[in-house]
């Protein structure tokens, strides 16, 4: 039973192993191209099986039947398949025929080339030919490329390995659950991360796509969607994911891509995600040079779409190679032509031109478009005057693999109310660091989208810029002009430094403590002069009083009660998911509900709760619910699979089974909960080993002390580095030493420690092996009650406690501020002066004691 996560991991590991030194941005074309050809072959066989009325049959038998039918029915069979699919793969050119040749030792690279060429010929006469034409052109899949191998044998070996990577995957079955599409999209993203700057040609980071897609999906009635710089198609598909199932069925996709290899990638990606050929119109062309798509009946309007999304290349130089004029209908609204040195507004205006009257457009742009002058300033002013800019969302820097600059998402509409403010969101500080990249967490995306949908103002984060504000800034939309970052640093108080005490104003600024437990805070302070106070007790003691206060305890209990109800509700739902369950909707319901119930409590950041649930899905539920839906909760709980590990390296690298693992119940959790006594005994032995190692370390250090008994007895058995004893030397020296001497006793002690450590280490190894085997076998006989206990801990182990802890976060933050203020002002300038004088006096006294000897 293979899940989407396991497929992703296996394919990416295979890609890393096989591509060698080939550039990731180039290798992706081979890997994803052959993966897609496997899909076409599997679809052909599936359609033949259905139309022929064949029942349960193995793949090899199905291929044989297809070969026979081809001989008997010839072109009639071809036409039938072509009508049903819009294409077909002839029997002799199936992916399965390559596998057969590999297994028989008759494989030749030319067979792959011939197969790809034949597919091109078979679709040439089809009405769907534009959807498949050129997918496997030599410019995309050049199997003679020396990067695949310096000679024919090397290339043949590498291509065979790549073909075998997909051999056991049923692409049709995987497509039905969107598993195949997800795996394809995952590989595109992974290749993007490996490709560095070249990734900008084909990939928009998932988190940026999510921000744009969620906004577009929520704000428009989407039946048609257009991406003028479509790349791999990820933006289109992310929007699709956030639309209802019924809407998805009739959604029409349009896109244009200049790079031919990337254009091919787009079409493959959409088809693998189940987009029907008649619902996708993708063009290989330059978006700016020639307007597309056009409506012949209304040449000055262009085709209009319900949603437009795009991540164009930034600040393209020389974009106007076609010599376009202001008279081009796309640029008329702007009243000026974007400068030839920067194509940002050219892309924006193209997308806006094709936006329907009630549609929503989202575009990623560099910050320069918000403040640059000249023609760009004129265009920005005109767009604001025409009321087209709905929102500007500033994102963190280093989100993209191909640039470290910060970017902004601009939302545009044509149906805004007169004088409606422009919503400015500054999310530039909302991220975590993952390696060299900055990453938006799920909670960051949710906050951006909620703020946009609710058009919410929040100090330091978002602002509704009214017309007068924009005029005062002369149409400069640079985000810091509208959203002032909150300075977290508390200003220094000179009087407090000179005379001591915490400024009363700083105490007043502790809003959560003042609102929640003002009496405890007040009783913990003493006024020392007008406007200044000092602590009557340590902050640690104040913290204990506050956190044990009846009001705080009551609030925590109320949160705990609601958190338990929330967890139990979804615990019952998650255990019974099946093939009819909409897992994406279930995840969304959980995420929305956690925000709703936490919003009832003042001073809790609901997005921290959102992240807790998002992490549970990411770490466990995405994988486990997929398996449960294919089987059932308790059957899955008692199912195990081989634990495959990689051993050896180079030519000797191989996959071997190392025991078994539960497909949803972790072996480690079984050991922890059902074999606690055994674990405790193992832990005691490990602690004894650690104690022996410490004893040996102490003796090593003692052996380094000159003229000591340890140095005399043990100095000669230290290794060259002088960091440990050598076991062989211990035995040799012990034979020479006289019994009863100090030397003999010390050597004997070291020998016994070595023996005890060795015995214990072997015992631990044997015990761990026995426990591992016991846990693996225990999976098969777990009771329903045991599965409930283990899986509840896996999914929701400390969730309730973590959610309850959210109430303490703002209190602890202000208590830390109180500690900081105390530490800052506890030592006044006079105290520091006194310490300085004492040190100076001590130095003078020490100096007078110095004696100069000749």
Automatic annotation (TrEMBL):
<protein>
    <recommendedName>
        <fullName>site-specific DNA-methyltransferase (adenine-specific)</fullName>
        <ecNumber>2.1.1.72</ecNumber>
    </recommendedName>
</protein>
<dbReference type="InterPro" id="IPR051537">
    <property type="entry name" value="DNA_Adenine_Mtase"/>
</dbReference>
<dbReference type="GO" id="GO:0032259">
    <property type="term" value="P:methylation"/>
</dbReference>
<feature type="domain" description="DNA methylase adenine-specific">
    <location>
        <begin position="176"/>
        <end position="488"/>
    </location>
</feature>
<dbReference type="InterPro" id="IPR038333">
    <property type="entry name" value="T1MK-like_N_sf"/>
</dbReference>
<dbReference type="GO" id="GO:0008170">
    <property type="term" value="F:N-methyltransferase activity"/>
</dbReference>
<keyword id="KW-0255">Endonuclease</keyword>
<dbReference type="InterPro" id="IPR029063">
    <property type="entry name" value="SAM-dependent_MTases_sf"/>
</dbReference>
<dbReference type="GO" id="GO:0003677">
    <property type="term" value="F:DNA binding"/>
</dbReference>
<comment type="similarity">
    <text>Belongs to the N(4)/N(6)-methyltransferase family.</text>
</comment>
<dbReference type="Pfam" id="PF02384">
    <property type="entry name" value="N6_Mtase"/>
</dbReference>
<keyword id="KW-0540">Nuclease</keyword>
<keyword id="KW-0808">Transferase</keyword>
<keyword id="KW-0378">Hydrolase</keyword>
<dbReference type="InterPro" id="IPR003356">
    <property type="entry name" value="DNA_methylase_A-5"/>
</dbReference>
<dbReference type="GO" id="GO:0004519">
    <property type="term" value="F:endonuclease activity"/>
</dbReference>
<dbReference type="InterPro" id="IPR022749">
    <property type="entry name" value="D12N6_MeTrfase_N"/>
</dbReference>
<keyword id="KW-0680">Restriction system</keyword>
<dbReference type="InterPro" id="IPR002052">
    <property type="entry name" value="DNA_methylase_N6_adenine_CS"/>
</dbReference>
<keyword id="KW-0489">Methyltransferase</keyword>
<keyword id="KW-0949">S-adenosyl-L-methionine</keyword>
<dbReference type="GO" id="GO:0009007">
    <property type="term" value="F:site-specific DNA-methyltransferase (adenine-specific) activity"/>
</dbReference>
<dbReference type="InterPro" id="IPR004546">
    <property type="entry name" value="Restrct_endonuc_T1M"/>
</dbReference>
<dbReference type="GO" id="GO:0009307">
    <property type="term" value="P:DNA restriction-modification system"/>
</dbReference>
<dbReference type="Pfam" id="PF12161">
    <property type="entry name" value="HsdM_N"/>
</dbReference>
<feature type="domain" description="N6 adenine-specific DNA methyltransferase N-terminal">
    <location>
        <begin position="7"/>
        <end position="164"/>
    </location>
</feature>
């Amino acid at each position: 039973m293979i899940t989407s996560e396991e497929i992703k991991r296996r394919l990416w590991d295979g890609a890393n192993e096989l591509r060698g030194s080939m550039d990731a941005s180039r290798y992706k074309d081979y890997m994803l191209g052959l993966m897609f050809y496997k899909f076409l072959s599997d679809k052909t066989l599936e359609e033949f099986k259905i139309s022929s009325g064949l029942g349960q049959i193995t793949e090899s038998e199905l291929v044989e039947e297809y070969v026979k039918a081809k001989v008997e029915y010839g072109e009639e069979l071809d036409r039938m398949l072509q009508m049903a699919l819009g294409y077909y793969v002839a029997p002799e050119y199936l992916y399965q025929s390559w596998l057969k040749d590999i297994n028989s030792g008759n494989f030749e690279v030319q067979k792959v080339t011939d197969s790809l060429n034949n597919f091109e010929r078979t679709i040439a006469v089809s009405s769907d030919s534009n959807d498949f034409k050129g997918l496997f052109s030599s410019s995309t899949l050049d199997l003679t490329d020396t990067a695949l191998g310096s000679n024919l044998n090397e290339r043949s070996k590498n291509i065979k390995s790549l073909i075998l990577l997909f051999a056991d995957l049923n692409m049709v079955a995987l497509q039905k659950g969107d598993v195949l599409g997800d795996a394809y999209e995952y590989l595109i993203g992974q290749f993007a991360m490996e490709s560095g700057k070249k990734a900008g040609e084909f990939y928009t980071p998932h988190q940026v796509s999510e921000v744009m897609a969620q906004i577009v999906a929520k704000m428009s009635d989407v039946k048609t969607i257009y991406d003028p710089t479509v790349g791999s198609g990820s933006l289109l598909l992310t929007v699709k994911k956030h639309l209802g199932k019924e809407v998805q069925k009739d959604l029409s996709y349009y896109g244009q891509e200049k790079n031919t290899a990337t254009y091919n990638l787009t079409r493959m990606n959409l088809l693998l995600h189940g987009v029907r050929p008649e619902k996708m119109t993708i063009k290989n062309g330059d978006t700016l040079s020639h307007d597309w798509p056009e409506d012949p009946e209304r040449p000055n309007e262009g085709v209009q779409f319900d949603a437009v999304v795009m991540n164009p290349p930034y600040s393209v130089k020389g974009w106007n190679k076609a010599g376009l004029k202001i008279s081009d209908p796309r640029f008329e609204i702007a009243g000026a032509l974007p400068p030839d040195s920067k194509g940002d507004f050219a892309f924006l205006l193209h997308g806006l031109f094709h936006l329907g009257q009630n549609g929503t457009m989202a575009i990623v742009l560099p910050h320069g478009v918000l403040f640059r002058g000249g023609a760009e300033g004129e265009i920005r002013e005109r767009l604001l005057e025409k009321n087209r800019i709905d929102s500007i969302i500033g994102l963190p820097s280093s989100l993209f693999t191909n640039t470290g600059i910060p970017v902004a998402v601009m939302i545009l509409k044509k149906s805004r109310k007169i004088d409606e403010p422009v919503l400015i969101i500054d999310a530039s500080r909302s991220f975590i660091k993952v390696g060299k990249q900055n990453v938006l967490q799920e909670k960051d995306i949710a906050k951006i989208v909620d703020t946009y949908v609710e058009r919410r103002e929040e100090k330091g984060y978002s602002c509704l810029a009214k017309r007068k504000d924009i005029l005062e800034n002369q149409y400069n939309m640079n985000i810091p002009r509208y959203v002032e970052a909150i300075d977290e640093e508390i200003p220094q108080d000179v009087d407090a430094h000179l005379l001591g005490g915490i400024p009363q104003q700083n105490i007043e600024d502790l809003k959560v403590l003042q609102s929640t437990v003002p009496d405890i805070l007040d009783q913990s302070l003493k006024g020392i002069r007008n406007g200044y106070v000092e602590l009557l007790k340590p902050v640690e003691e104040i913290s204990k009083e506050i956190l044990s206060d009846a009001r705080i305890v009551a609030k925590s209990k109320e949160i705990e009660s609601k958190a338990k109800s929330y967890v139990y509700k979804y615990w019952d739902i998650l255990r019974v998911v099946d093939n009819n369950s909409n897992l994406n909707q279930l995840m969304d319901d959980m995420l929305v509900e956690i925000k709703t119930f936490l919003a009832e409590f003042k001073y809790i950041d609901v997005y921290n709760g959102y992240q807790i649930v998002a992490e549970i899905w990411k770490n466990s539920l995405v994988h486990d619910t997929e398996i449960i839906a294919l089987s059932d909760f308790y059957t899955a709980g008692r199912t195990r699979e081989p634990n495959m590990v990689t051993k050896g390296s180079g030519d000797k690298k191989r996959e071997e089974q190392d025991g078994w693992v539960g497909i949803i119940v972790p072996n480690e959790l079984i050991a922890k909960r059902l074999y606690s006594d055994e674990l405790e005994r193992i832990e005691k032995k490990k602690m004894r080993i650690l104690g022996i190692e410490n004893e040996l370390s102490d003796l090593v250090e003692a052996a380094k002390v000159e003229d000591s008994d340890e140095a005399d007895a043990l100095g000669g058995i230290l290794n060259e580095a002088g960091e440990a004893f050598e076991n062989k030397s211990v035995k040799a020296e012990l034979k020479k030493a006289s019994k009863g001497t100090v030397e003999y006793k010390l050597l004997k002690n070291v020998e016994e420690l070595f023996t005890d450590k060795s015995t214990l280490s072997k015992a631990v190894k044997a015990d761990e092996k026995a426990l591992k085997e016991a846990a693996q076998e225990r999976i098969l006989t777990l009771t329903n009650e045991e599965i409930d206990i283990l899986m509840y801990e896996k999914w929701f182990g400390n969730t309730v406690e973590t959610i309850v802890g959210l109430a303490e976060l703002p209190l602890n933050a202000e208590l830390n501020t109180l500690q900081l203020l105390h530490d800052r002002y506890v030592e006044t300038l006079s105290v520091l002066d006194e310490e300085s004088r004492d040190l100076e006096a001590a130095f003078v006294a020490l100096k007078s004691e110095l004696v100069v000897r000749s």
